[in-house]
Amino acid sequence: MAAMKYFVPALAVAGRAAAQCSVAATSTIQNAGDASALASCSTFSGSIAIATGTTGEIAIDGVQEITGSLSATNVEELTGITGDSLETIGGTFNLDTVQILSTLNFPRLTDVRAIEWNALAGLQGLVFTSGIQMASTLSIQNTQLNTLDGINLQTAETVYIANNDYLNDITMQIGNVSDSLVLTSNGRNVSANFPNLIWGNVMTFRNCSTVSVPSLASTNGSLGFYSNFFQSLVAPNLTMVGGDLSFANNDDMTNITMPQLQTVTGGLQIANNTELNAIGFSSLETVGGAVSFVGSYETVSLPELSNVRGAFRLASTSDISSACTKFRAMHGNSGVIRGNFVCRSGSGSSGTSTSNGDDSSDGGSSSSSSSGSSSSSTDGTSGASTVYVSGATALMGVVAAIFGML
């Protein structure tokens, strides 16, 4: 890493209306006077770091562009950073462990290559009047922010927003996320609103009270919803998930609506959503991996399902015997469900087996025969009976591998 050096007077270029300033290495600001010396620079070519011993507020006024990064790390007495003219930061806007920082005022800032903020215990709001619209990376962690007003990205590669306990509104007009979008452990009532989000790669939503993705059409990677607080998830335009689609431990969720979803390239998992009574995907045709539905749901509707390349498992404490019968018929010779089939119903239902197998990995036992006789048994822990159809022997290892979450 290039050696840090203290700020030297800006180099004015004679004959120009605005000075051009440049340094070979990162310049370090120690006080307000160092910052004021930059006022004649419209463009600062290089990076600026705020020294750890800096106190009070630093005003980087007059500068319109910083071609490198702007950073402050472990600056214990820094209360604010402002810049009345700054529009562009060509590198990273990095703030890490600046505990009493309470003011970020950049009314004209719109373009930053990367925002990386962490451990800003005093930062509750932003003054970004024009709004940051361009950033390839946005990472905001462990702040006191209660809103992201002033950050309204149009596109991004990575968005990671986590552990901001007072953040209750995440709203952006972003249209696509090419790498990953992760929201986790923010305010208890956080609403995640992405009205223009059409496409993403990997997207994960945790601990959200509302998730709104009305325009989402497809993902290249996985889409997961874990331990959220919303009652309903609606994605009216989603047609394809390019990886796994997962809903797990969303205790208040009563409804999943994805009327146009046709393809899940990976696995489809719905598990331990205690208030979810019905599972239905009216247009779903293909699941490239395994299907696993576990919980207390009562009905399953997949009217267009024609190709499941992995295993298929239904397990509910409610009576799902009719679903067991329906999907068992889609296994084996029908070619719809190609992997192992397991169905467990809390009603004491029974089913027909197509080959020998062992269901002991599900917490109980069942007998099955290749002659097509029915088999059922009582689960020692839940009282549920097992309906089991297997396409292979040694089921315990297969199920454990595919459904290790149970």
UniProtKB/TrEMBL annotation:
Gene3D superfamilies membership: Receptor L-domain
GO BP, one annotated term: fungal-type cell wall organization
Keywords: Cell wall, Glycoprotein, Secreted, Signal
Domain of life: Eukaryota
Record GO cellular component, one term: fungal-type cell wall
Compartments where found: Secreted, Cell wall
Signal peptide from the UniProt entry: 1-19
Major localization class: secreted
Stretches the record annotates as Disordered: 348-382
InterPro entries to which the protein is assigned, alphabetical: CWI-Assembly_Regulator (IPR051648), Rcpt_L-dom_sf (IPR036941)
Name of the featured protein: GPI-anchored cell wall organization protein Ecm33
Species annotation: Salinomyces thailandicus
